[in-house]
Amino acid sequence: LSGVAFPGEKEVQEWEKEQEEARRRDHRRIGTDQELFFFNDVSPGSCFFLPKGAHIYNTLTDFIKSEYRRRGFSEVVTPTLYSTALWERSGHWEHYSENMFTVATEGSQRYALKPMNCPAHCVMFEQRVRSWRELPLRWADFGALHRNELSGALGGLTRVRRFCQDDAHIFCTPEQLEQEIVSCLEFIRSVYRVFGFSFHCLLSTRPTPCLGEPEQWDDAEQQLERGLQQFGERWELNPGDGAFYGPKIDVQIRDALGRQHQCATIQLDFQLPIRFQLQYVGSAPRMIAILAENYGGRWPLWLSPAQVSVVPVGAAVVQRFQEAGFMVDLNDDPGATLNKKIRWAQLAQYNYIFVVGDKERDGGSVNVRSRGGKQLGRRPTEEVLKDLMKLRDSRSNEEDF
């Protein structure tokens, strides 16, 4: 049995209010209500993304890919299935095999679905002789990963068995390491700033057991600490929580309810060729869960799967905005009043409602309302399109334009 106690009635009421708000923002409820995703026992722990959910997923992935390119990363594509000989060589088979899905084949050869990309990127690095002039070499990988999580640990999008994450590796010299660490931390800060998340860093040090000599761990931990000090944001020590092959910086974000979430990781690995592993958003499904609860289903325009609802007429407006890449729907249901259509669009969390009657259609304009009920007035259609494209591309959380 477990319970919770409070010193007074006021604290009880505050806790109950927080619990109710958490239930209202639960990403599983939002996923069902907005038809974003679902799970099915035919593939436990693996998510089925419906069209609107796939829009969020792809928009989030496109955003991160563009940020990688800006920072000198090249995207690579690697296989999903590998001989267990690779995992034995890397050390993962000894320390992580219970979390891997294995595949039986004819003969004695065994294979496993990859739970991470580190060994594959090392195979790519060693496929030819590399010059120091090529370093730092930065590779990003968005392939599917599989981890055999216990069924009792599965929970919506926050803990799944099949997922994709923005997984990148940097091969660099020891002299380049500290600056690369700082650059990665600045990358993380710029990404989280877009979503409005505050964060703090944890320096996770050597666990027991671990690979490598104590001197190697000392040097690696000192490198990460110097990077954190140069970065300048708040951080704290997290003893014993590093990976078995090296220390890491864990980055925890705080959502709208004040809850902490672990998403980004920078790992220093000295067991394989000098490189370190980093992730910014982390698992895409997990980040979607956090964002759904952080926004309470009120997605900002650039991520929203329901950007514009047009009522009661306006097929030409719908076509024009769809051509510009917007998620827009026409509600021309003859059985519903205009007020009901507007109310439905607000409940469905469309960012904007365009009221288009005969007058607006003939005059090439739309009457704009926000989902919060604010009337932004009648404006020329092309002007609205231009302004919304600018707002979308800025990845702003603002609604007024």
TrEMBL record:
Which key words are in the record? Aminoacyl-tRNA synthetase, ATP-binding, Cytoplasm, Ligase, Nucleotide-binding, Protein biosynthesis
* First-tier enzyme category under EC: ligase
Q: Which Pfam families match?
A: HGTP_anticodon, tRNA-synt_2b
* Any one GO biological process: threonyl-tRNA aminoacylation
Question: SUPFAM superfamilies attached here?
Answer: Class II aaRS ABD-related, Class II aaRS and biotin synthetases
EC numbers for this chain? 6.1.1.3
Q: What is its main location?
A: cytoplasm
What GO molecular function annotation could you give as one example from this UniProt entry?
threonine-tRNA ligase activity
Source domain of life: Eukaryota
Give the similarity note.
Belongs to the class-II aminoacyl-tRNA synthetase family.
Q: Where is the composition biased (Basic and acidic residues)?
A: 8-26
Kindly provide the name given to this protein in its UniProt entry. Answer: threonine--tRNA ligase
Using the record's annotation, list all stretches that form the Aminoacyl-transfer RNA synthetases class-II family profile domain: 51-300
Q: Which InterPro entries match?
A: aa-tRNA-synt_IIb, aa-tRNA-synth_II, aa-tRNA-synth_II/BPL/LPL, Anticodon-bd, Anticodon-bd_dom_sf, Thr-tRNA-ligase_IIa, ThrRS_anticodon, ThrRS_core
